[in-house]
């Protein structure tokens, strides 16, 4: 049993003389006494053993919960008559309620205790992560709202669990988002074991929600069957229905009303956001779990990072803006033509051609940036940083989603007809995407481990004096022109003062930031040619390719978003 009392045990026989001579330190935070640990040789060793034991048992708790959930979901897939989707939803609803109880207790109890949070990790929960939690959480709430509306319209063939599960999901998403936005940087110093177990339970729940979202294609199959039925009616063929159907399909058919079509379209459009939300929450919760009981000494506190300033770069923003504008045009044309009843073949050619032009440019930029990192010969930052370690793991893990999809596409295309124009474009796109992910990962990871370069104080003083004029007073039109001229001169001065290596790193990182943003926007807001072109879907089958796409697509979106954060840090610290 995990104890929750603060350890006040007597020192051991070998440490008694030293502890008697030392004055009591009231500022020292004692870790909880763990039942597995009985003997000590020093205070630091006792604290370290208690921390490792608490992480071990909380990890075992999460592992058992994940295995139980995986068993339920796998049984539902392979034997849906014995384990139904409703029973899986009931299990996940119980886990959500348990997580809600712990989060509310932590917000109202643990975090308000004296000395509960004495340290905050400055690297944890950056702005872009919190913004992602807010964005994807809002989209997930809308997704559950559409699911409730869709199930309410078809209430004659839906159970109450179809409405209860997304209702609990909305409450869980809102509470978890509030918790992560306000406490992602906390290093909790009280109730270590309970906090670790609560965080691991929440991580396990989010992982199971992500796994279910990847494998559950129930509503997608309903919509797909309805579309096939409509196409058969337009073709003048009566849809085949087996004698034992008992009108189940007709009773669950969405009425020809606008509201039902809105719920269907909104559900399909927002579906990737839910899986993305689960992945982002898992990453933030893992950092919080690593920070439980962590004590940050003053000499380990990293210096304040320089602020983001659009100075010293010209060609990177220019080329990146061109790539973004062209990408938006391609995305709009794709959305107009590819989402119709009969997708146009040319729109897929245009979409993949854009990627084939952009991906080599990004790969070359990343390779040049890596070479410049090697030429700079900066010392590596060897300080312990759980957030940076997690960033590296997430970059490598999230890239596996796109790389895995590309290899499945390569096998399907080579086995069918690789000489066809569209097939050859998809094949080239898959190979280039694998190479681009690898080169960009090397560039970002190498840049994150380099020590930061501090700018000179004189430049910062001049820039602050120029910027203060806008904040302190209103300026007339003549004064405004003078200030703009000063800012322009300061921009040119800063650009000329930078060394060619730092200038090139800033140009490359900003170009890659804009490219990753447009490559994040296109699949996030509905451009899914891997599922809509029908080539891989006809090769692997609907259900198999659905699982592959829903596994790889959210990881690919997460990779682009996570890459933007790493590239911005390289740009700021270059």
UniProtKB/TrEMBL annotation:
Q: One GO CC annotation, please?
A: plasma membrane
* Chief place of localization: membrane
Position of the signal peptide: none
Where do the TM regions start and end? 56-77, 89-108, 128-151, 163-181, 193-213, 268-289, 310-334, 354-372, 392-414, 426-448, 508-527, 539-559
One annotated GO molecular function is:
proton channel activity
Q: Where in the cell is it found?
A: Cell membrane
Its membrane topology is listed as: Multi-pass membrane protein
The protein's UniProt keywords, in alphabetical order, are: Cell membrane, Hydrogen ion transport, Ion channel, Ion transport, Membrane, Transmembrane, Transmembrane helix, Transport
What Pfam families does UniProt report for this protein, alphabetically? Answer: Otopetrin (PF03189)
Say which family it is in.
Answer: Belongs to the otopetrin family.
Sorted alphabetically, which PANTHER family does this protein's record hold?
PROTON CHANNEL OTOP, PROTON CHANNEL OTOP3
**Protein name per UniProt:** OTOP3 protein
């Amino acid at each position: 049993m995990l104890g929750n009392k603060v350890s006040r045990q007597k020192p051991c026989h070998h440490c008694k003389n030293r502890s008697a001579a030392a004055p009591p330190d009231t500022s020292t935070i004692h870790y909880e006494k763990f039942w597995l640990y009985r003997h000590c040789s020093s205070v630091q060793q006792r604290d370290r053993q208690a921390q490792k034991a608490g992480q071990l048992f909380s990890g075992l708790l999460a592992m058992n919960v994940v295995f139980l959930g995986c068993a339920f979901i796998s049984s539902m897939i392979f034997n849906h008559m014995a384990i139904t989707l409703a029973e899986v939803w009931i299990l996940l609803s119980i886990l959500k309620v348990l997580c809600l109880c712990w989060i509310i207790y932590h917000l109202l109890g643990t975090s308000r205790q004296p000395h509960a949070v004495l340290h905050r990790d400055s690297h944890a929960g950056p702005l872009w992560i919190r913004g992602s939690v807010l964005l994807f959480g809002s989209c997930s709430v809308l997704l559950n709202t559409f699911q409730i509306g869709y199930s309410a319209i078809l209430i004659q063939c839906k159970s109450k669990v179809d409405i209860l599960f997304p209702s609990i999901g909305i409450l869980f998403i809102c509470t978890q988002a509030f918790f992560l936005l306000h406490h992602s940087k906390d290093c909790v110093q009280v109730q270590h074991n309970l906090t670790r177990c609560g965080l691991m339970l929440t991580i396990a729940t989010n992982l199971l929600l992500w796994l279910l979202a990847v494998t559950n294609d129930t509503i997608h199959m309903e919509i797909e069957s309805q579309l096939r039925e409509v196409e058969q009616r337009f073709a003048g063929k009566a849809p085949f229905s087996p004698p034992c159907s008992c009108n189940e399909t007709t009773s669950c058919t969405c009425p020809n009303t606008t509201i039902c079509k809105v719920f269907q379209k909104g559900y399909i459009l927002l579906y990737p956001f839910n899986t993305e939300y689960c992945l982002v929450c898992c990453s933030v919760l893992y950092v919080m779990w690593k920070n439980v009981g962590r004590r940050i000494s003053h000499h380990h506190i990293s210096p304040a990072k320089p602020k983001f300033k659009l100075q010293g770069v010209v060609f990177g923003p220019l080329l990146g803006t061109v790539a973004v504008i062209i990408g938006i045009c391609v995305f709009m044309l794709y959305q107009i033509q590819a989402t119709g009843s009969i997708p146009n073949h040319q729109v897929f050619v245009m979409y993949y051609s854009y990627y084939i032009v952009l991906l080599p440019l990004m790969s070359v930029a990343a390779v040049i940036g890596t070479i410049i990192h090697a030429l700079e010969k900066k010392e590596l930052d060897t300080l312990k940083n759980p957030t940076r370690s997690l960033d590296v793991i997430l970059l490598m893990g999230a890239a596996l989603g796109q790389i895995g999809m590309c290899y499945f596409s390569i096998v399907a295309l080579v086995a069918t007809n690789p000489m066809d124009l569209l097939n050859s474009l998809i094949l080239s796109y898959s190979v280039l995407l694998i190479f681009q992910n690898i080169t960009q990962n090397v560039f970002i990871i190498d840049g994150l481990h380099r020590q930061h370069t501090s700018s000179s104080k004189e430049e910062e003083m001049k820039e602050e004096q120029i910027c203060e004029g806008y904040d302190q007073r209103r300026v007339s039109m003549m004064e405004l022109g003078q200030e703009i001229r000063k800012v322009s001169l300061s921009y040119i001065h800063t650009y000329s003062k930078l060394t060619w290596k730092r200038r090139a790193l800033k140009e490359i990182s900003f170009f890659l930031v804009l490219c990753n943003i447009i490559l994040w926007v296109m699949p996030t807001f509905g451009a899914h040619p891997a599922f809509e072109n029908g080539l891989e879907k006809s090769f692997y089958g609907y259900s198999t390719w659905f699982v592959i796409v829903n596994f790889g697509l959210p990881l690919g979106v997460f990779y682009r978003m996570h890459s933007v954060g790493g590239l911005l840090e390289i740009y700021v610290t270059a």
